[in-house]
Amino acid sequence: MQAYNVTNFLNDHPGGKEVLLVAAGKDASEEFEEAGHGSAARLMLDEFYVGEIDPSTKTTTSSVSTTTTTTATNSSINFLENHQKIDHYQDKSSRQNVKLLQFLVPILILGLGSTLLRWKKTLADLSTVHDAQISTL
Ligand code: HEM
């Protein structure tokens, strides 16, 4: 039995995200067939395939027992939460990079500006000395 991770497909699923969330963590083969998916949907399956599941551990959507269904739902919720946590950490580190850049870029611009000003002043001083030397000759 194949397992698919459709987390990134939730918002793009033509049949809506709700049906996928309800089927998450369970055997949704029947629902998939009943929805009358065409070849396009079948071809997309490869994209989301994550591995095989031992059929003896499967929970059907027609609910074997409330506890197993709840466990399956909980595990799929945990799975989604973990994914959100990973996204959150990635977001956090990229936000820290942006903050660092926001801090460094103005400092670099200021440094460059003051160096240019100092060069300009040195050049002006040099040309004054040069002019003075010429007038003394
Ligand atoms: C990896 C799993 C899935 C993929 C890649 C997928 C993909 C698609 C695609 C591409 C369509 C557009 C019609 C078509 O090309 O056939 C569609 C429609 C639909 N899907 Fe899925 N689907 C998946 C799982 C499911 C599941 C588990 C359910 C139900 C529990 C479901 C319910 C529906 C329904 C009801 C439609 C029809 C929407 C409409 O015509 O308004 N799908 N799906």
UniProtKB/TrEMBL annotation:
Highest taxon listed in the record's lineage: Eukaryota
Pfam families documented for this protein: Cyt-b5
Domain Cytochrome b5 heme-binding per the UniProt entry, residue ranges: 1-54
Key words, A-Z: Heme, Iron, Membrane, Metal-binding, Transmembrane, Transmembrane helix
Keyword Membrane appears in the UniProt entry: yes
PROSITE patterns named among the record's database cross-references: CYTOCHROME_B5_1, CYTOCHROME_B5_2
Family as reported in the entry's similarity comment: Belongs to the cytochrome b5 family.
Protein name: Cytochrome b5 heme-binding domain-containing protein
Organism: Datura stramonium (Jimsonweed)
